[in-house]
Specification:
Blueprint: E1 13-14, E2 26-34, H1 36-47, E3 61-67, E4 70-76, E5 80-87, E6 89-99, H2 100-109, E7 115-120, E8 123-128, E9 131-136, E10 146-147, E11 152-157, H3 158-169, E12 183-188, E13 192-198, E14 202-209, E15 211-212, E16 219-224, H4 225-235, E17 240-245, E18 253-258, E19 261-266, E20 285-290, H5 291-302, E21 311-316, E22 319-325, E23 331-337, E24 339-342, E25 345-349, H6 351-359, E26 365-370, E27 377-381, H7 390-395, E28 399-402
Antiparallel strand pairs: 1-10, 2-6, 2-7, 3-4, 3-6, 4-5, 5-19, 7-8, 8-9, 11-15, 11-17, 12-13, 12-16, 13-14, 14-28, 17-18, 18-19, 20-24, 20-26, 21-22, 21-25, 22-23, 26-27, 27-28
């Protein structure tokens, strides 16, 4: 588990001390108006990142800050900061803290009319048409110091970033006892970002081009996979995603920004597993498959495979025979036409791991490269249709290694 910040402000953080003489939970007299959908979307996006069981109760809240014609909504749980900025008609600048999940539910339930939000006493009043809610303010003076987003380091194309993250996070571990494996290793080069993740049974890697802002030193960081996946889903639709990496004083965080939204995540501290030598250097058999067809067949056959039991794949003379069986004598088999080059081969796999690798391929066809039944197999997309082919840009450097399983009999 990543190190938890203490409450006192650390170097490189921005604090908002409460002003003397104001009510608890409020800094200034917040008052603003905006369109209902914009309000609901901003609150929902921030609130979904809040901890379900917060160690510190105030981190279950969202901060609403009004300044210079904008509403800034933010949530921070010591590990991840989510922040979104939305234009508003502001009548009074200020900063308040309220229950995030309750405010999100209220915002979602409001009628399609403009929303007016104002502090009245020690409560936040939310008005929309004839509807009115009053929420108690939380003690903002107890809210943790919020990290500052580091300076911009560079940009990456949004759709390429989203695809690459989805491809590699599928291989990240969910086992919190091995925290390094729950992250994605991001190697930062002068022109290329290399993403890699593994749970010891499979390994995914993807290279994507990026455009640094100035000179960015080559280094590598480990980003929590869950946070990275959330970032890619929420920001990947933007034309560009901005990356912000800290210097020596705030190197423990990595920021992502697009479309008025920002996510800042604490990096995992430690050394990632050395994986470069795991990629096979020799290939004895290659099989080219139609991805959607192969996935559908594999899912059907896997229906009878018991948990942790392998699915058998036999390749020879242009065909693939998929089969599985269970201890109750249930069985399934299916035969497909595929392109086989090299020696005939029979091999076993965990169906779920194999499906994850195939599902991450965005091209219509994929190549499975084998050495021998006891060795890992590598899945790669079939690309090369030209420099302007969108599949090459989205998927061209993806590769996925999966360990084989021993077959009975």
């Amino acid at each position: 588990m990543a190190t938890i910040l203490a409450h006192p402000a650390a170097p490189g953080t921005l604090t908002h001390p409460a002003q003397p003489g104001v009510l608890a939970g409020m800094v200034g007299n917040v008052e603003f108006e905006l369109e209902r959908d914009a309000f609901a979307e901003a609150i929902a996006w921030t609130a979904k990142g809040l901890p379900a069981r917060p160690v510190v109760p105030v981190t279950a809240g969202v901060v609403l800050e009004v300044t210079d014609g904008a509403m800034i909504v933010s949530g921070f749980d010591f590990e991840v900061l989510n922040r979104i900025e939305v234009p508003v008609t502001d009548k009074a600048a200020g900063r308040v803290l309220v229950s995030g999940r309750l405010l999100a539910e209220i915002a979602r339930a409001l009628p399609p009319k403009d929303v007016r939000v104002v502090v009245e006493g020690n409560r936040l009043a939310v008005r929309c048409g004839s509807v009115r809610f009053n929420l108690p303010l939380l003690h903002i003076e107890d809210y943790p110091a919020v990290p500052v987003l580091p300076a911009t380091s560079g940009k990456v194309r949004g759709d390429v970033f989203a695809t690459a993250v989805a491809q590699v996070t599928a291989a990240a571990s969910r086992d919190e006892t091995l925290p390094m494996l729950t992250g994605v290793r991001m190697e930062i080069g002068p022109e290329v970002l290399t993403l890699a993740a593994t749970d010891r049974y499979r390994l995914a890697e993807r290279h994507i081009p990026w455009t640094p802002t100035g000179t960015v030193p080559s280094t590598s960081v480990i980003v929590p996979a869950k946070t990275l996946a959330d970032v890619a889903k929420s920001l990947g639709s933007a034309s560009e995603v901005v990356l912000s990496m800290g210097d020596a004083d705030d190197a423990g965080f990595l920021g992502f920004s697009a479309g008025g939204r920002q996510t800042l995540t604490r990096l995992l501290d430690g050394e990632f597993v050395k994986f470069a030598s795991l990629w096979p250097t020799a290939v004895t058999t290659t099989v080219e498959v139609q991805v959607s067809e192969f996935i559908a067949a594999l899912k059907r056959v896997a229906l009878v495979a018991q948990r942790f039991a392998p699915v058998r794949l036999a390749f020879s003379e242009g065909t693939a025979q998929l089969s599985a069986e269970a201890e109750d004598e249930s069985s399934a088999e299916e035969e497909l036409e595929v392109g086989v080059t090299g020696e005939p081969l029979t091999i076993g796999f965990n169906a779920g791991y194999l499906l994850d690798g195939l599902a991450a391929v965005t091209t219509p066809r994929a190549t499975l490269s084998f050495t021998e039944p006891s060795k890992p197999t590598v899945i790669t997309p079939v690309t090369g249709l030209g420099a302007d082919d969108p599949d090459d840009a989205r998927d061209g450097s993806y590769r996925y290694l999966v360990m084989s399983m021993r077959l009975r009999g």
